[in-house]
Design a protein that fits this description.
Elements: H1 2-5, E1 9-13, H2 22-33, E2 38-42, E3 48-49, E4 52-55, E5 67-70, H3 77-87, E6 91-94, H4 107-120, E7 123-125, E8 131-134, E9 139-140, E10 152-159, H5 162-174, E11 179-184, H6 193-202, E12 208-213, H7 219-228, E13 233-237, H8 242-252, H9 259-269, E14 272-274, H10 277-287, E15 297-301, H11 304-316, H12 326-335, E16 347-348, H13 358-367, E17 373-379, H14 385-402, E18 406-411, H15 414-423, E19 428-429, H16 432-444, H17 462-469, H18 480-489, E20 497-500, H19 503-513, E21 517-522, H20 530-533, E22 536-540, H21 543-557, E23 561-566, E24 572-581, E25 585-592, H22 597-600, E26 603-607, H23 612-620, H24 625-628, H25 639-655, E27 659-670, E28 673-676, E29 679-683
Parallel strand pairs: 1-2, 1-5, 2-4, 5-6, 6-7, 10-11, 10-12, 12-13, 13-14, 15-16, 15-17, 17-18, 18-19
Antiparallel strand pairs: 3-4, 8-9, 8-11, 20-23, 21-22, 21-23, 24-25, 24-27, 25-26, 27-28, 27-29
Helix pairs in contact: 3-4, 5-10, 6-7, 7-9, 10-16, 11-16, 13-14, 17-18, 19-21, 23-25
C-alpha cells in the first residue's frame, strides 16, 4: 500500500488541454501540493501541457511509472490496464466511473480490469473514486481541484464515497485538523478498507484513522485490525436502511450489512462508531488535540447556564469534575467584580471582566495535576471581541505547551466564528456537548486491546459436538434431542430429558425422571415454533395427564419422537444464541427470553469467542440487567454460571463453523445456576461437516 502514497513518478491518463478537462485538475493538484517526483502525461494526440510532453500512449513513456491515475471512459480502462501492466506499472488509481455502480451489466468491464491486474501483479484503487493524497510525499491526485490548504497532520481518511471523503477533507482543513493520508476507495474491486487499514496502523505519520464505509468487505478482518491497534479508529458506517441500501448499490455497488452486528463488532473492537457527518467531525476535532490521559475535566465558562449544561454533558459521558484547589481559585476570586458567584468546577467567570487574566486562568487549569483536559466556553461580542480574539490565538499555544487537550467552544455568531477560526491554531467547537463528547471519545479510543483469557476454554467434547452437528437433516436443522445433546457436550447445563418413541415410551421415561414433566413434540411439520403449534405441554403432574397429552400431540402433529423433560419451575427466562454472519462470522446474542424475546428486543451482541470481561458486559448492558441482579426480593442469578454458558456457546460456535444458527430459548437462570430447556440448531454453509 505504501507505493500508492509514496510513488517516485506519476502518470495521468485522460489529460488534455481542453477547458474543463478534469485530468488537468489532477496535474494542478500535484503541482500545487509541491510533488517533486516525475510527472508523465498520456494523450493519444500528443502535444504539451504546462511545459510537460503528452505521450501518445503508455508504451511511449520513458520509464514505467510507479503510480498511474486513469480518468478515461469506462470502456477504455481494461485496455489501459493491459498497457500499464505490460509497461511494468504496479500501482493504479482508477478514478473513472460508469461501472457496476451505474449498471449491473457493466460488471464485465470490472472483470477485465481484475483479470489484467492479476495477470501483471498489479494493485489498484477504485474504480469510481477520486484518488489519494499524502501530505508527507506531496502526492495529490483527486480530479476535483482542491482549493483549500490541506494541513499536514496525523489524521488519515479512507472513504468509500468520494463526495463524503471530500467533505471530510475540506471540513478538516477548515477546522485546523491536519491530514496524513487520504484515499477514496470507490467500488473496492481490488484494494479495500482491510488493505488500507492494515497499512495505516503501521504508518508512522498516521495517529488517527477515519473510515467512511457503505459496505464492509471482511468484517472479521476489520474487527481484528481495529482491535490490534491503540490508534483511534473512527467509523462512519452508512447504508443501514432499506432506502439507503438502494441508493448505495447504485452509487458504489455496496452491499448492506446487518447494522446491529456492525455496531456491536465496532464497539467490541474499540472503534468510535459515528452515525452522522456532524458527529464525526466533532470526534475528529477532539482526536487532533493531545489525547487526555484520563477522564478528569476542568470546565470554565463565562455563562452559568452553559456551565450547567456542560456539567450535564460530563455526567452523561462519565467524565469527572474534580474540585479546584484553593491556590488556583484565590487569585480568580480576587479579580472578580462583585464576588457573587461561588467558584467551583465548572468555573463560572460571569462576574469576571478582566480579559487580560483569562490566559492565566486557562494556563493554571491546564497545569493542575488532577486535570486531564479543559473545556472552555467563551462568549463575547462588541468591545469584547478584540481581547477575546487575542485569547483565542493564544489558546492553542497553551494547549501544546501543557500537552493536554483544550476543547474551546465559542458562543459567538457565525461571522465571528469564521474570524476566530482563522486566528486559532486548534479546532473550535460550537457547543459544550460537542466538546465534551469529543474528549470522551478521544480518551476511550484504542483502549480495548486483544481479547483476554476465557476461564472455561476447555472441558468440552468437540468430537461429539461435530458428530451431532453432522447429524442434521436435509433441511439443515438438528432435532431437539440432538440439539440438547450438543449443548451437553459443549458443557452447557441442560434440564434432564429423555427422548421417547410413543406415548407408552413417554410414560416410562417420566417414571425415571419424576413428575412433574414437560412434553415436547420432535420432528413432524412446522415444529420449529412448538408453542404455537401445540407441540409443548407444561406441568404434567402424573401419568394420566402425560398419556393424554402425548396421545393428543401424536394424533395432531404426527411427530417422529416425543421428548420428556423435567418441569423446571422459577428462574429468569433468557435467550442465548449464535448467528453466523457472512462478514463477521459467529455472533453471540444474550437477552431476555421466552416467548417475549422478539417482542422485547432487549439483547446484547458480541463476536465470538467472548472472554470473561465481554461476557460480563453482555449481561450488564441489557436493559433488564436489574432483573438478573436481584429485584423486588428475588435473588440474583448465578452470575458465574451464566457467564460461563455465554462463553461456552461462543467457543462452540467459533470452533465449529458449520453451526449457522443456535438458539437456547429459554435458558433458565437462577441462584443455583442455568439450565437450557429448549434449543434450535441449524447447520449450513460451506463449512458443514459430515458426521464423524
Amino acid at each position: 500500500m505504501k507505493q500508492f502514497f509514496y510513488p517516485g513518478s506519476v502518470v495521468i491518463l485522460g489529460v488534455s488541454p481542453r477547458p474543463g478537462n478534469m485530468g488537468r485538475n489532477i496535474l494542478k493538484n500535484l503541482q500545487n501540493m509541491g510533488y517533486a517526483g516525475e510527472i508523465y502525461l498520456v494523450n493519444p494526440k500528443g502535444g504539451e501541457l504546462d511545459g510537460l510532453p503528452m505521450h501518445p500512449s503508455v508504451a511511449d513513456l520513458p520509464a514505467a511509472p510507479e503510480l498511474a491515475v486513469i480518468l478515461t471512459p469506462a470502456s477504455t480502462v481494461p485496455g489501459l490496464m493491459e498497457d500499464l501492466g505490460a509497461k511494468g506499472c504496479k500501482r493504479v488509481v482508477i478514478e473513472s466511473g460508469g461501472f457496476s455502480e451505474l449498471e449491473s451489466d457493466r460488471g464485465g468491464l470490472e472483470q477485465r480490469i481484475v483479470a489484467a491486474a492479476d495477470k501483471y501483479g498489479m494493485r489498484f484503487i477504485g474504480p469510481n473514486c477520486i484518488g489519494v493524497i499524502c501530505t508527507d510525499s506531496k502526492v495529490s491526485v483527486p480530479f476535483p481541484l482542491l482549493n483549500r490548504l490541506i494541513l499536514p497532520g496525523g489524521l488519515s481518511i479512507m472513504a468509500q464515497s468520494g463526495g463524503i471523503g471530500l467533505t471530510y477533507l475540506h471540513a478538516s482543513a477548515e477546522a485546523k485538523v491536519g491530514i496524513a493520508k487520504f484515499c477514496s476507495m470507490g467500488n473496492k474491486l481490488n484494494v479495500n478498507e482491510r488493505d488500507l487499514l492494515g497499512y495505516l496502523i503501521e504508518d508512522p505519520q498516521t495517529t488517527a484513522i477515519l473510515l467512511y464505509l457503505e459496505s464492509i468487505v471482511d468484517g472479521r478482518a476489520l474487527y481484528d485490525l481495529i482491535r490490534s491497534t491503540n490508534k483511534p479508529v473512527v467509523v462512519h458506517k452508512s447504508n443501514i436502511g432499506e432506502l439507503s441500501h438502494a441508493i448505495a448499490s447504485s452509487h458504489t455497488a455496496a452491499l448492506a450489512n446487518d447494522d446491529a452486528i456492525v455496531d456491536a463488532a465496532l464497539k467490541q473492537a474499540g472503534a468510535i462508531r459515528v452515525n452522522t457527518v456532524h458527529e464525526c467531525l466533532q470526534v475528529v476535532k477532539g482526536l487532533s488535540l493531545p489525547r487526555p490521559k484520563g477522564r478528569r475535566l476542568a470546565i470554565i465558562s463565562r455563562s452559568g447556564g452553559h456551565a450547567v449544561v456542560a456539567a450535564d454533558a460530563a455526567y452523561r459521558h462519565n467524565m469527572e469534575l474534580p474540585p479546584f484547589p484553593p491556590q488556583y481559585l484565590t487569585p480568580i476570586q480576587e479579580a472578580t467584580r462583585a464576588s457573587v458567584i461561588k467558584l467551583q468546577n465548572p468555573l463560572d467567570l460571569g462576574d469576571l471582566f478582566k480579559f487580560e487574566i483569562y490566559v492565566d486562568i486557562l494556563k493554571g487549569a491546564l497545569e493542575l495535576e488532577d486535570v486531564d483536559g479543559v473545556v472552555m466556553l467563551h462568549g463575547y461580542r462588541g468591545p469584547e471581541a478584540e481581547p477575546s480574539r487575542k485569547f483565542v490565538a493564544k489558546a492553542g499555544e497553551l494547549c501544546r505547551e501543557a500537552g493536554k487537550p483544550l476543547a474551546l467552544a465559542l458562543l459567538v455568531d457565525p461571522e465571528e466564528m469564521l474570524v476566530a477560526s482563522e486566528l486559532s491554531t486548534i479546532p473550535l467547537f460550537t457547543f459544550a456537548e460537542e466538546a465534551i463528547a469529543a474528549l470522551s471519545a478521544s480518551e476511550a479510543a484504542g483502549k480495548v486491546g486483544p481479547a483476554g483469557e476465557v476461564s472455561c476454554a476447555g472441558g468440552y467434547d468437540i468430537k461429539m459436538c461435530k458428530q451431532l452437528v453432522g447429524s442434521a437433516g436435509p433441511d439443515g436443522w438438528l432435532e431437539l434431542p440432538e440439539s440438547l445433546h450438543l449443548l451437553n457436550a459443549a458443557g452447557i447445563p441442560v434440564a434432564p430429558f429423555v427422548a421417547a418413541l410413543d406415548p407408552d415410551d413417554a410414560v416410562h421415561a417420566a417414571s425415571t425422571l419424576g413428575y412433574p414433566v414437560v412434553l415436547k413434540a420432535v420432528g413432524g411439520d412446522d415444529l420449529l415454533h412448538k408453542t404455537e403449534s401445540g407441540g409443548v405441554a407444561l406441568g404434567l403432574a402424573d401419568e394420566d395427564q402425560l398419556r393424554e397429552a402425548a396421545e393428543k400431540m401424536t394424533a395432531k402433529l404426527k411427530p417422529s419422537r416425543l421428548l420428556v423433560m423435567n418441569h423446571i419451575a422459577g428462574g429468569q427466562e433468557l435467550i442465548l444464541g449464535v448467528k453466523r454472519d457472512p462478514g463477521f462470522g459467529p455472533v453471540v446474542l444474550l437477552g431476555l427470553g421466552g416467548t417475549a424475546a422478539e417482542a422485547l428486543g432487549d439483547v446484547s451482541l458480541r463476536l465470538a469467542p467472548v472472554d470473561d470481561q465481554e461476557a460480563g458486559q453482555m449481561m450488564d448492558q441489557l436493559k433488564g440487567a436489574r432483573l438478573l441482579k436481584g429485584f423486588r426480593g428475588k435473588p440474583p442469578v448465578n452470575r458465574p454460571a451464566l457467564l460461563e454458558a455465554v462463553m461456552r456457546l461462543s467457543i462452540l460456535a467459533h470452533d465449529i463453523p458449520a453451526i449457522a444458527e443456535l438458539d437456547i430459548n429459554p435458558l433458565l437462570a437462577g441462584p443455583g445456576g442455568v439450565l437450557a430447556v429448549d434449543a434450535r440448531v441449524r447447520v449450513g454453509g460451506e463449512d458443514s461437516e459430515p458426521a464423524c
